[in-house]
Amino acid sequence: AQSVTQLGSHVSVSEGALVLLRCNYSSSVPPYLFWYVQYPNQGLQLLLKYTSAATLVKGINGFEAEFKKSETSFHLTKPSAHMSDAAEYFCAVSDRGEGAQKLVFGQGTRLTINP
Amino acid sequence: DAGVTQSPTHLIKTRGQQVTLRCSPKSGHDTVSWYQQALGQGPQFIFQYYEEEERQRGNFPDRFSGHQFPNYSSELNVNALLLGDSALYLCASSSTGGYQPQHFGDGTRLSIL
Fold it and tell me: Comparing C-alpha atoms, which of A109, A46, A73 is closest to residue B99?
């Protein structure tokens, strides 16, 4: 069964500092991988996805993630944090297959930005 | 272009009651998935509908049921509500043309008293 582990339920960085949110997955075959962001009282917004093209994936709002098969990781980074980046971030995995597949989410990482 | 819309936004019920939540998918999407997000947790997959049939189901009891209509909109029904059913219920839609990501609505916050 697939699973996702997000290391660190809370991450705090200073404005302008590097953001690094960690995600490791467990899957028998290379899956599809996603990062979503959730702001208070809202649904989930897709930041970026890995579906088999380049291993370095660029997303919205300056975020990017690198798929490393050998480490079964898909960490999310942003070179310079902004106050508006404060939110909950979820890593998710799904099977490859015909049509849409269910998403399996990690527990989430709450990102706090210090001024 | 409207995204995924869910109604109602908030709902309060008591134990033992039944509830129906509604979802309209993003234009051009034909697949609807439902997720339950308990406070402080990641979303958990409930089930997915495509062509008006349940195609996949997560580890949820039969008290959770759903329906998809010809216009692709969907309903989630929960019977015999328990306190533990209190959560944010998220609807996500996607298309089946190749692999496409799921787009989420803002959810329905269900509170059970």
Answer: A46
